[in-house]
Amino acid sequence: MTTEFGIARAELEVVAAAIIDDGAVLACRRAEGKAAAGKWEFPGGKVEGGEDPRAALRRELLEELNVEVRVGELLDRSRTLVGDLVIDLATYDATLLGPRPGESTDHDQLMWLRVDELADLGWAAPDLPAVFALIERFNRP
């Protein structure tokens, strides 16, 4: 629970992976019937009570995409108000430890994009700070 502007709001701790493979970044589109259906996001999910965020990310990617990853450095951590809920999203760099995923339990489409193509998608609000952080990283001289 967090208090912003004198209003108590529920808070959800979430982790996501910016998976870069052969110069392309994985973007996933939320399936119909899911929150934020039709919006794009980095794959990941909720951190369970007492769970290490990096362990949660590995677990979520195995459940969602059936892939194993090496979780790297924190790319971005931002808090975004979505309705009455504050989403505390930590996005990490991640490297696949096997083949690219072919399907997802939470998404109806997976797409590999160059970093300069990321801004063309309709991203879910909590993922935007990480998208901008990736674009900024790759545009540095």
Automatic annotation (TrEMBL):
Residues 10-135 form the Nudix hydrolase domain. It comes from the Bacteria. It is an enzyme of class 3 (hydrolase). Keywords: DNA damage, DNA repair, DNA replication, Hydrolase, Magnesium, Metal-binding, Mutator protein. Its cofactor is Mg(2+). InterPro entries: MutT-like (IPR047127), Nudix_hydrolase (IPR020476), NUDIX_hydrolase-like_dom_sf (IPR015797), NUDIX_hydrolase_CS (IPR020084), NUDIX_hydrolase_dom (IPR000086). It catalyses: 8-oxo-dGTP + H2O = 8-oxo-dGMP + diphosphate + H(+). Its EC number is 3.6.1.55. GO terms for molecular function: hydrolase activity. Belongs to the Nudix hydrolase family. This is 8-oxo-dGTP diphosphatase. It comes from Agromyces indicus.
